[in-house]
Give the backbone structure.
Amino acid sequence: MEVVITGRQMRIIPALKRYIEERAEKMEKCADPSSHVVWTLKTEKHRQIAEANLHTNGFIFQAQEETDEMYASVDGVVKKIER
C-alpha cells in the first residue's frame, strides 16, 4: 500500500511518519495491495486534525478526527476507516 503524508501548517517529524505508516498497515486488511492512502495533518490553534483518504477497488473511504494530540487523531481516523 502506498502512503502519502502531507502536513499543513506543521512539519512531519520522522516518529510521526513511522507511526502513521504502522497504522496504515491496519487498513490493509480492508484494502487490496495496489491501493493508496493520502494523509493530511493540520494544526489549528489547539486542535490537531488528521484526515485520511483511502483509495481502493474504485472506492474512496474518507475519515477525519480532531483531538488535542496528533497521535490520538491518527488512531481515531484508523478506527473510523476500519468500521
